[in-house]
Amino acid sequence: MHLHNLRLINFKNYTDQSVECSSDVNCLVGKNGSGKTNFLDAVYYLSFAKSAFNSTDHHNIRHGQEYMSLLAQLQLNDSEVDIQCSIPVGQKKIVKWNKLSYEKLSEHIGRMPVVLISPYDTDLIRDGSELRRKFFDMMISMFDKAYLENLIRYNRFLKQRNSLLKEGSIKKSWDQTLIDTYDLEIIKLSNSIAKTRDEFTDSITNYFSNHYERISGNQEQTYILYESEVIKENFVGRYKAQIEKDKLLQRTTMGVHRDDFLFLIGDRPIKKFGSQGQQKSFAISLKLSQFQLLEDRLEQKPILLLDDVFDKLDDLRISVLIELITSKRFGQIFLTDARPERTKEILSDYKGSVQFFGVEDGRISPMPLSS
Ligand SMILES: Nc1ncnc2c1ncn2[C@@H]1O[C@H](COP(=O)(O)OP(=O)(O)O)[C@@H](O)[C@H]1O
Ligand SMILES: [Mg+2]
Hints:
By secondary structure, the chain is α/β, with parallel strands linked by helices. The protein is built from 12 helices and 15 strands.
């Protein structure tokens, strides 16, 4: 699977830019602020129908413009497909696959798998549980549509239940029958989501330890543990017993929206006790596991986006990545670097086709390798 070409119209700092891509490695080089990460984000957007960085969709539209559009041709097995993601003027986002709109955006997820490795990945370790849940949810959703549907339904019921709790506390009277109806759904969906998350945590652990060992250069035992009230004893009883607390706090205090994933080295949480180096190794190993797992489940290599990794990583971790790149472990790659000489040096042993692009102030032009 690889992108043949991509056209960005009013996406962030791009006006109207077309790019013909190499099926192997594409390197975007240019000064800070020129638009390199924005380009990677456009590829990410085509996969997830949203930006990796801006949760507000309209922030992806070029300042002063009213719409944006991303158009791409993707080689998928033996066929070529058109993908379009647009935010039209004053309308909801549109995603099209071969010119046909999806009824639900969730149908698109997983069709063009992408893995992004960026300097922000350590946020996954350091930040709160929401980011980790999103990371795991997104990954599972790529190959398990029922899971994604359950998650969407769960969030809908949760939102409704929370509004009901708020409303009740204003009126000082709660619609218990309606709360009970929501609870039936929330409990059922919680059980199903927790089961999938629990099983998934086991399967990613299998991939993870190998990557961590290679990337960190040592043999420490690592663990990824799923932490949830839902899989502990008597969840239903404890959930029901929380109702007075929920009324008081005006929100649902138990359920899979409170889950977390714990990352341990030995028996210590890496969030608290890991060195910066260990956290970086952990984060990259997570992403490499994500790549391998998606490749196995979806039976194709995801497109790999490497944002500024040569700049921000140290030698050992870079050398493992380079080894994986030169041994053609990955499929199509897009990488960014502010220093072209370094990337050229790194890729000098690479046998596949490499295309360099110069990025300057929202314009991209192909560069001959010798320049
Ligand atoms: N919606 C937008 N409209 C116009 N410019 C934007 C928008 N969003 C981001 N930018 C600009 O994009 C530039 C950053 O691009 P980025 O891809 O992060 O650069 P880099 O090459 O350093 O990776 C900044 O100058 C920022 O102002
Ligand atoms: Mg950048």
